[in-house]
Amino acid sequence: MQVVASVVFLFQLAIILRVVLSWFPGSSRGPVSEILERITEPVLGPIRRILPPLGGLDLSPIIVIIGLNVLLQLLR
Known about the structure:
The chain contains three helices and no strands. With about 80 residues, the protein is mainly α.
């Protein structure tokens, strides 16, 4: 269980870093942003297609982080 919790934590951290980097113009072209996108987009993309941006705000990272926390609670 500890390994799963650690992987989920690292994935959530990747999502948060991607969100923070998206706030800075030009940061989306760097290698770190590219790696974060490759890691997180397979999960964020489908959520983004289901839930369109609300007033220009992408809620998919919040939904995924909450979903992962619920999943961890259910596994415990």
